[in-house]
Amino acid sequence: MTDNKKSFYYRPKTNQSSSPTIRWTFVTLGWLFFVLGIIGILLPVMPTAPFVLLAAACWARSSRRFHFWLINHKYFGKYVRDWEENHAVPRYAKWLATLMMGFSTAMLFYRLPADMLWVAWAIALVCSGVAIYLFRLPNAK
């Protein structure tokens, strides 16, 4: 690879542990979270972004190779870099997440029996907190 090609890639800031046990634990957790994120693409009830960000955090502490691969990934890289650099989320992702949480919560109110509505209210409260948190984050460019 030439120097020009190398400068194209984003260079991650990693904080690798010196303990092999901790590194292997984080590598394993990173792969688990990444696979869950891929499953989240296919299943509408599972989120993708939190799992991919968790994978990036685990790999930043364990494997420069995997972390570098993820932050330069064709589909996930920009979102991971935006999060790592600025804790930023794209505006459309905020709206999409909020709409999906609202739809899911509405379905709970519709489908749960009356004696279980407290679960729907608890989930509505959590989803509201997540939406407020999301919209307080900066917008990714």
Automatic annotation (TrEMBL):
Transmembrane recorded as keyword: yes
Keywords: Cell inner membrane, Cell membrane, Membrane, Transmembrane, Transmembrane helix
Protein name in the entry: Inner membrane protein
Pfam families reported in the protein's UniProt record: DUF454 (PF04304)
Compartments it resides in: Cell inner membrane
Transmembrane parts of this sequence: 21-43, 116-135
Organism phylogeny: Bacteria, Pseudomonadati, Pseudomonadota, Gammaproteobacteria, Moraxellales
Membrane topology: Multi-pass membrane protein
InterPro entries in the record: DUF454 (IPR007401)
